[in-house]
């Protein structure tokens, strides 16, 4: 090989070396950029994972509250049903008593004498004196 050919080869290899260095620099720059994006993505995923975990805890808490409310509602419904049944029974008894009261003969029999409280006969009676004394209290 002649020295010119050798010099041309060396120059060609130097150009290739420079091109390779430039490609390596570009690759290194892209790699650094991708590493940065990966770190950001990892942080985002970690933050979302924390949010999901927090929401999972909130859901569990809400489920427990719903369960507690259902239990309380069941107690209230039972109490309301019992009160309704009790009041229904009381209403039935009151209706029966009213019906029975209407069936009672409330007229005063003819053989019983009813005195007029304001009459003179009643004032002369000893019972009226006792009643007057009681009303003075």
Outline the fold blueprint.
Blueprint: H1 3-103, H2 120-124, H3 126-135
Describe the structure.
The protein has 137 residues and is mainly α. The chain has one domain. It has 3 helices and no strands. The protein has helices at residues 3-103, 120-124, 126-135. The chain is rod-shaped and about 165 Å long. The N and C termini lie far apart (151 Å). Mean pLDDT is 83; it is low at 131-137.
Name some characteristics of this structure:
137 residues; mainly alpha; 3 helices; 85% helix; disordered C terminus
DSSP summary, beta strand count: 0
| Mean pLDDT, all residues | 83
Largest sheet: none
Share in helix: over 70%
By secondary-structure content and strand pairing, the structural class works out as: mainly alpha
Distance between the termini: 151 Å
| Poorly predicted residue ranges | 131-137
Approximately how much beta-strand content do the residues carry? under 5%
Q: Into how many domains do the coordinates divide?
A: 1
Total helical elements: 3
Radius of gyration: 54 Å
Written as H for each helix and E for each strand, in order along the chain, the element string is HHH
Characterize the overall form: rod-shaped
Brief account:
This protein is an all-alpha fold.
């Amino acid at each position: 090989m002649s020295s010119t050919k050798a010099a041309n080869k060396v120059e060609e290899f130097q150009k290739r070396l420079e091109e390779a260095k430039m490609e390596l620099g570009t690759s290194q720059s892209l790699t650094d950029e991708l590493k940065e994006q990966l770190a950001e993505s990892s942080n985002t995923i970690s933050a979302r994972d924390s949010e999901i975990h927090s929401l999972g805890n909130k859901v569990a808490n809400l489920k427990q509250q719903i369960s507690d409310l259902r239990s309380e509602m069941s107690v209230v419904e039972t109490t309301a049903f019992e009160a309704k049944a009790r009041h229904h029974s009381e209403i039935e008894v009151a209706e029966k008593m009213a019906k029975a009261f209407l069936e009672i003969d409330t007229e005063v029999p003819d053989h019983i004498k009813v005195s007029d409280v304001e009459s003179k006969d009643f004032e002369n009676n000893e019972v009226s004196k006792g009643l007057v004394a009681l009303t003075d209290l």
